[in-house]
Amino acid sequence: MHYPAFFDDIPVIRLHDPLAEFLGAVDDGVIEYRYLDVVKLAGHSCPTVASAYWMTYRALRALYPDGFPERGNIRVEFGKQADDGVTGVIANVVGLLTGAAADGGFKGIAGAFDRRDKLFFAADITSEIRFTRLDTGKIVEVAVNMQSVPASPRIWELLPKCRNGSASVAETSEFRQLWQERVRALLLDHAEDAQVFAISLL
Question: pTM for the complete prediction?
Answer without folding.
Answer: 0.96
